């Protein structure tokens, strides 16, 4: 039954690109291009599927920072979308596509799967690997890109905090990842914190419930990988010297355990301490979780109460802000915006008015005029809510220096002039990041074309600008 | 180094009534390369994950050496899951890429260097130890990833479909490398695959699972030559074994108007539950074209032929009662995979024409006979 349903779901989103004009029913057969896509964007069908991804023409590619991967990954502009293409085996592509779809349905922050392309073959008729297509996550960056800019010394801590939240959320819904690392996550700035999005689900699967062994394995692997990734940054002189790699790895385990216990642990107290239920809910709200269902039982012959959250949902503040303003933003951004909204309400003496009416005015008078000031050249890289948060922070520092309040438009202008240019990734850093990303690609053509010994005698190469330089298949 | 013992091990998933792995008894010897093989959903991955500590064991125990690890956490078991998607770190040398986990574990520099050098020698990476990954070919990068598991020198390697994420060319190459490496290192290995060719080419011994139940354990040739039941007979071997059900009369299998002699001791083992029928199996290479007058042969209507130069294959339908044997074909369809047809390997110079009816003789010493009631081997 389950198989039947998944088959039906797959069919519902299948588009056959049958260029050979043979029987369309046989389109899924080997050797025939087959695109399963959740989009009907016709430009998808005109891409050069018969060319290995590493050789796609430059004019199709978008230069955005990529994370370390064993597979070839490229960003491609298709209409108004930027799509991430990953060349992997057919079974892995299909598995990952399905896993990402399930995670999206369960409201887990992860990249959006767009399609799977199978049955590719080169002009000479040689079979090519399948391609998994996902949508590029706007404003996101791989961890490596966050260390190539002048960032705060606690960046590593904030990244693992975000990863801990993601891992707990995955485990709560029964997803065993099997390959947790900073490389398999994209980060989006979220006020002073980061939000983590899963980008690689190749080894993951959903279970009705995870065993402690599965959770502990994920956690232990995450710790090892994070320490390794930070040691790598250290080797490249990209990590602030104050950062202890092992401590950051241990921090992940501590944060995870704390979150997991708060979200799933059973607490028991006397019947005269009922306020503790409320306190528990407050603590969960502070951590960004809503409690949908609480399991409250009397134990010990009715003398004690035991409480355990049954269903928790992440995004407490962001849902509240969405309801009030229609803004869909990260959790900590939402918290900051809600605080500013509260301040606006107090400063305009409107505490007695309906919150939703005040929120509409705040949007019109404060939020929108500010984010409209984002210069056009930054509009693709700067997220409005994050811009607003950063301007608020900047205004606070300005006010502290001058000794009195600074109007928003003044703070915004000053921020745009003095801070914003420093936040952008320069072309050289981007080229270095992408060369790093390709350095671990394990690609079949490279093995076929370059005998180990022959290659060994050639010695290492320098590659900076050419994003394919580290993928030897292009030789 | 250690042996691994599954002792009456059972795993039932929450909400299920039938076990995913049922009462498994399996000994993996110290240093042995054991392959678990079976179709999707047979319980092979669950079996591996129980050993890894990722699945709870509901009944029975699992031992590594003499130590009962049934309830131990994964990281305390001294096992290595090989080929989880190891990413290579671009700024670290090959040596650091291989040895960083030992550094995390607090081993001293000299020990790490020694272990890394040993692994590099086995992997043919010695001269690249001070290079960065970007200066390596794809195959070398793949070996560095293997090195990361090797340097830990665990008691057991676990590999769950490790080749499935690799592309086709690298898959065959890596298959050979893993097998060679395992023999050089002598580390006890449990390897899971759905691919019987992978199982036959890599394993010291193969354990075949179906529906959570262990069907047979043995060396590749044992499983190929003497499958214990119809399932193993149909699963192991490519092209797969021809299997069909026939009435038995006077010690002979009745195939239409033809009859094929059966060994008397096998026929004697048939019980009333078998309803006077027998499952007759033979591999495509253990039959030959016979003369029209041969009395110990059956008739085959040739549907297709293949000439591979070195070998020829005939695909056809067995003729029973002067017509194509529907029942036999339907039964064999569930057991072998050549589009329900009977396959015979012959000299390519002797291939008949499509549409011909030919006589086929089965080598009596290479015949596989099974009880229709139990599926168990009779000879």
TrEMBL record, chain A:
Biased composition (Acidic residues): 441-454
Region (Disordered) residue spans: 441-475
Listed InterPro entries: DUF4032, Kinase-like_dom_sf
The entry's keywords: Kinase, Transferase
DUF4032 domain segment(s): 259-420
SUPFAM superfamilies: Protein kinase-like (PK-like)
GO molecular function per UniProt: kinase activity
Keyword Ubl conjugation: no
Entry superkingdom: Bacteria
Protein name: LPS kinase
UniProtKB/TrEMBL annotation, chain B:
Record-linked Pfam families: ABC_tran, OB_MalK
Gene3D superfamilies on file: 2.40.50.100, Nucleic acid-binding proteins, P-loop containing nucleotide triphosphate hydrolases
Protein name (database record): Sugar ABC transporter ATP-binding protein
PROSITE patterns: ABC_TRANSPORTER_1, ABC_TRANSPORTER_2
InterPro entries, per database record: AAA+_ATPase, ABC_transporter-like_ATP-bd, ABC_transporter-like_CS, ABC_transpr_MalK-like, ABC_transpr_MalK/UgpC-like, Mo/tungstate-bd_C_term_dom, NA-bd_OB-fold, OB_MalK-like
Annotated keywords: ATP-binding, Nucleotide-binding, Transport
Species the sequence originates in: Aeriscardovia aeriphila
GO cellular component: ATP-binding cassette (ABC) transporter complex, substrate-binding subunit-containing
